Amino acid sequence: VSHLRLSRFYLSAGPELVQLPPFDTPRLASFGLHALGIANGLDLFGLEAEELFLHCPSAANSIIWPERPLLRRIRRLDVCLGGALNLRRFTGLHGLSVQTDASALELPDAPTLLELCLEAPNLARLDLSEWTAFGELRKLSLRRCCRLQNIQMPHTGE
User: Fold this and answer.
1) The pTM is what?
2) Between β-strands 125-127 and 95-99, what pairing exists: parallel, antiparallel or unpaired?
3) Distance between CA atoms of residues 129 and 109, nearest Å
4) Distance CA 67, CA 123 (A)
5) Rounded to an integer, what distance in angstroms lies between the CA atom of residue 95 and that of residue 127?
């Protein structure tokens, strides 16, 4: 039996899909999942991809992320997740897009980040001060951040 050489995976499912089995895939260029119903956990531990698109608004608090070395290889992360988000381990990103109803958000210190887009209507505070500088950042977009009261920008780099 020949092996499938899958390089991109994208699944868009309705609210009936409430659970997905763990992934045991070879390295992918891109992995995407748009599933409104997943709330019972999402196991991405074995997933290795350069681009990761997750639009599962009810799954944020129950995601098992890939191990740290695999997270560092992700270059593009696009998430639409509910609940508190900690994205600190995604340090190799070039692009980050976050849509969330969370009131707290922890962003990575990603020196190679070119684009940061946030849509977070409940976020009151955004702290970018730990970033040593914007580095390579070309685009910073804050959409629908209606409750944003305090934003701390990075200190000047060298």
Assistant:
1) 0.86
2) unpaired
3) 10
4) 27
5) 18
